[in-house]
Structure to design on (684 residues):
């Protein structure tokens, strides 16, 4: 880098000396010598590299520039030779500096990775490399230190800044039993953490790997540009030869070589993508690649899976209405039956049972789960059935009118109600509430601001809940009581209507619809690799704040790519026309070429500063 | 068939990435080479019977770039 700058400076000084001597009417020999010297200084490395690659039968832009410069000297255009090589060296210096800045966005992120971890070994506290911590080993993290591994807090209490993972800098409180992530910062308390994942396996390690891979994923536009330049360069060389035979003008042919590499065109897309993905990564938004960045720039509809997105997904048991049964007994049976279920309603029931009963449960026998309906299991020799009316209708179990009525009242209030039966006798209703997130309404508004035409909700919940949430959040529509495969169908229907749909889910039980949608967005994905793997865009934080940002950023990136491509294509044709029309010569051709590359890079760099209004 | 990631010193132009890619692709034992300007990284698939990582490094060195680390 420094060497490059030196070369540019020396060559520049030589050119200045040349022009000065010309101005003072000194012998033209001084002018010519200075210019040739400048060309040699700036072009030496270029020529060496051109020679090396030519040996391997590769034609590089360095070769074209070398031929142009040498050719210019031979025909006595010393100034042109100096200008071409100087501009080329200066341009590539500026280019690598600015691209370096875009790369730094990612490097900065990598620098957040923790290096050291404090562990107890042989009864002594020792500092070791973070990736050498063993699974299950306990690490000690003091206030102000970076958490070196993924794991669970086993002792202590503190506030943790998880910005490295989620992009949210508001500290989150952590205590015994809570999950913590490598790369996050322990603010004010002492923590002991049992290690679960280290190094590349941590969520942070995954993010880095993903961001790296994402930048290498070629967007469709990029592929098109590369294909174009593949033919363009040899085409121009051929044209240079033909034009020499027709016009006999060496200068024209040499100029053609200078513009033979459409630099701005080749770099137009990838540089915008790097900047866009870099910006996203800093804000806890992982975009899987340029293709998705381009695609999500075209999104005009957002479909939410309700649970875990519009709502917190932390459903809580609200009421237990029993029929000739003790409340605690109902809860015990329900929690035991749900022991193996990871459904959010099951989690709520188990959580409540843990709090109220303080007993431990074992795996039930004959556990059976029917997606979208409910479960059955055997507890203490009794058949326990928990689910919605669909399950009960299917099983032919009658729901008495008074029970039905109570159920309706609860559902009108926007709660989910599950029915519990023992040996096919209904013993209780458990209502579970999962309120919309506080900021959900603003998020819907913001989505409209960034250009989303329609915001809808697809949910497995019943119509009443869906209706109450949809009207509260002023959604443009909803579809309720959907099984996972129905959500897929719903997405397909919207697509047939001509919408480009982004599906937002928690990435766990809505995988099929995330895959079907034009863009699948998983949120709250810190710690869940499955979600990161399936989604095209992942919001690490468990809140909606970054969703409008992610879509706004994609749209900005998409515009940026288009601007760059249009500009670069125009430059290619303008240069070609200028050269063939004998208006552009070696020096000016190189100047325009290098300027256009820089303009494209600078335009892309604006994406690094993108922030939602 | 083995896969390796070569982290190169910062590539200074998109054409340099092309150059490294072409050179690697033409190297005996390399079945696939993918070089990225924006990350200065080469993803290479190679036949370990014909070439080893050191050989790959040497091939890259011919283009004037050094491999900083491999993974």
């Amino acid at each position: 880098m420094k060497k490059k700058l030196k070369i540019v400076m020396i060559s520049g000084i030589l050119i200045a000396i040349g022009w000065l001597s010309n101005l003072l009417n000194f012998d033209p020999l001084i002018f010519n010598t200075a210019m040739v010297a400048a060309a040699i200084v700036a072009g030496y490395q270029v020529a060496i590299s051109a020679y090396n690659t030519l040996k391997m039968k590769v034609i590089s832009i360095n070769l074209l520039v070398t031929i142009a410069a040498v050719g210019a000297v031979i025909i006595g255009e010393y100034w042109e030779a100096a200008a071409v090589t100087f501009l080329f060296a200066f341009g590539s210096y500026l280019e690598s500096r600015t691209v370096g800045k875009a790369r730094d966005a990612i490097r900065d992120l990598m620098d957040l990775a923790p290096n050291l971890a404090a562990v107890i070994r042989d009864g002594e506290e020792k500092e070791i490399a973070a990736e050498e911590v063993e699974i299950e080993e306990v690490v000690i993290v003091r206030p102000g230190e970076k958490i070196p591994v993924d794991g669970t807090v086993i002792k202590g209490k503190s506030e943790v800044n998880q910005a490295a993972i989620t992009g949210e800098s508001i500290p989150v409180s952590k205590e015994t039993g809570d999950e913590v992530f490598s790369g996050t910062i322990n603010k004010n308390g002492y923590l002991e953490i049992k290690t679960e994942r280290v190094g590349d396996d941590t969520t942070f390690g995954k993010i880095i790997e993903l961001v790296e891979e994402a930048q290498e994923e070629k967007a469709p536009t990029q592929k098109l540009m590369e294909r174009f330049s593949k033919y363009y360069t040899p085409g121009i060389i051929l044209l240079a030869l033909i034009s020499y035979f027709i016009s006999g003008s060496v200068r024209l042919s040499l100029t053609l070589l200078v513009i033979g590499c459409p630099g701005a065109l080749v770099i137009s897309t990838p540089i915008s993508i790097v900047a866009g993905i870099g910006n996203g990564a800093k804000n806890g938004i992982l975009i899987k690649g340029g293709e998705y960045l381009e695609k999500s720039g075209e999104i005009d509809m957002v479909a939410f899976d309700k649970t875990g997105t519009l709502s917190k997904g932390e459903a809580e048991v609200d009421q237990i209405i029993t029929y000739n049964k003790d409340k605690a007994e109902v809860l015990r049976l329900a929690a035991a039956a749900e022991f193996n279920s990871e459904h959010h309603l099951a989690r709520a029931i188990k959580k409540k049972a843990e709090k109220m009963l303080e007993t431990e449960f074992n795996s039930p026998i004959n556990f059976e789960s029917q997606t979208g309906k409910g479960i059955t299991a055997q507890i203490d020799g009794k058949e326990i059935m928990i689910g919605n009316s669909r399950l009960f209708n299917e099983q032919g179990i009658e729901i008495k009118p008074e029970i039905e009525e109570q159920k309706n009242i609860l559902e009108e209030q926007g709660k989910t109600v599950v029915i519990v039966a023992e040996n096919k006798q209904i013993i209780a209703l458990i209502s579970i509430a999962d309120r919309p997130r506080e900021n959900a309404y603003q998020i819907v508004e913001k989505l409209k601001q960034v250009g989303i035409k329609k915001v809808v909700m697809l949910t497995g919940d019943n119509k009443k809940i869906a209706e109450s949430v949809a009207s509260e959040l002023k959604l443009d529509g909803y579809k309720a009581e959907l099984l996972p495969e129905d959500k897929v169908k719903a997405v397909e229907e919207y697509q047939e209507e001509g919408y480009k749909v982004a599906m937002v889910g928690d990435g766990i039980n809505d995988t099929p619809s995330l895959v079907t949608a034009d863009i699948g967005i998983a949120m709250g994905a810190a710690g869940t690799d499955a979600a990161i793997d399936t989604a095209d865009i992942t919001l690490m934080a468990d809140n909606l704040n970054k969703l409008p940002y992610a879509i706004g950023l994609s749209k900005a990136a998409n515009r940026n790519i288009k601007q760059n491509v249009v500009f670069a294509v125009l430059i290619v044709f303008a240069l070609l026309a200028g050269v063939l029309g004998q208006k552009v010569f070696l020096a000016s051709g190189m100047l325009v070429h290098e300027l256009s590359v820089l303009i494209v890079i600078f335009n892309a760099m604006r994406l690094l500063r993108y922030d939602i209004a | 068939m083995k896969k390796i990631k070569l982290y190169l010193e910062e590539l200074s132009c998109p054409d340099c990435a092309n150059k490294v890619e072409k050179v690697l692709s033409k190297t005996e034992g390399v079945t696939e080479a993918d070089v990225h300007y924006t990350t200065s990284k080469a993803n290479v698939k190679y036949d370990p019977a014909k070439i080893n990582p050191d050989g790959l490094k040497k091939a890259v060195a011919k283009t004037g770039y050094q491999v900083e680390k491999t993974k």
About this structure: Chain A has a mean pLDDT of 86. Residues 147 and 437 of chain A are 29 Å apart (CA to CA). Chain A touches chain B at residues 1, 4, 48-49, 52-53, 56-58, 60-62, 92, 95-96, 99-100, 102-103, 106, 212, 215-216, 261, 263, 266-267, 270-271, 273-274 (CB under 8 Å).
